[in-house]
Design a protein that fits this description.
Layout lengths: L12 H23 L6 H4 L6 E2 L2 E2 L6 E2 L6 E2 L1 H10 L5
């Protein structure tokens, strides 16, 4: 028995601008996390780690764990997030 599927997609300039602005705020927090990881915990970074490579958090305390590699911005993740908000159909 086939199931009918409908896909609804939308795009608006206002939504794209808002998404870009929110992404820039999170990216700024990511830069701060890279510069001084000791200032942040799992609770206070609030999404900034999604754009940072080589950062780990202690599961019990939520503090940043010392890594052998220096944290850096994950530019591929940033581009992927930008492309998600630019989807065209």
């Amino acid at each position: 028995m086939p199931v009918e599927v409908k896909i609804v997609a939308f795009w608006s300039r206002k939504y794209a601008d808002r998404a870009r602005h929110e992404r820039e705020k999170v990216l700024e927090k990511s830069r701060q996390l890279v510069e001084s990881p000791a200032k942040y915990t799992r609770a206070t970074h609030y999404g900034a780690a999604q754009y940072v490579k080589n950062v780990d958090f202690d599961p019990t305390t939520g503090e940043v764990v010392e890594c052998t590699k220096k944290p850096e911005i994950d530019w591929e993740a940033v581009r992927a997030a930008e492309n998600t908000s630019k989807l065209t159909f």
